[in-house]
Design goal:
By secondary structure, the chain is mainly alpha-helical. The chain is 60% helix and 0% strand. The N and C termini lie far apart (52 Å).
Length: 146
């Protein structure tokens, strides 16, 4: 997978996990340890001992367990529509449009955040008040050769 696809996938999984309040239990964590051990061709006890030495390994395994549990939730609750190959692109576009409409409708129901208002001197928050604004095409003193 490309990096952007992985990021999108992670964001979707995280949002579903958050909305559905999916948490892992000790059994889920043990399953992740066993799967990692099988992939690495080591024992589960070796993985547990490795977690003591490699501080981030436990967090990685917890994330794996949460991801796997979230994907299992999605698969258990999804609707599958079998589509002939020649109709796939049309169905995919229709489903995409429906999803985008749902997202737009949800966003429209959210209160809008206020735009930052200029202060009494006319500067937006975070704007340097000591330098006057210059148009993008204006030359600075250094650029003009002075």
């Amino acid at each position: 997978m490309r990096a952007t696809t992985r990021l999108r996938f992670s964001a979707v999984i995280d949002e579903i996990r958050r909305r559905e309040e999916i948490e892992i239990e000790a059994e889920d964590f043990d399953t992740a340890i066993a799967a990692f051990a099988a992939d690495a061709d080591v024992t589960a006890d070796f993985v547990r001992q490795s977690m003591v030495v490699q501080e981030d390994l436990e967090e990685q395994l917890r994330e794996r367990a949460l991801r796997d549990k979230t994907i299992a939730f999605i698969l258990a609750n999804c609707e599958v529509e079998e589509v002939p190959r020649e109709q796939y692109e049309d169905v995919k576009e229709r489903a995409r449009d429906e999803l985008l409409k749902e997202v737009d409708d949800e966003a429209a129901q959210q209160p809008e955040e206020a735009d930052p208002q200029p202060d009494a001197e006319g500067a937006a928050p975070g704007q340097d008040r000591t330098q006057p604004e210059q148009p993008d095409d204006a030359l600075t003193t250094d650029e003009a050769g002075q």
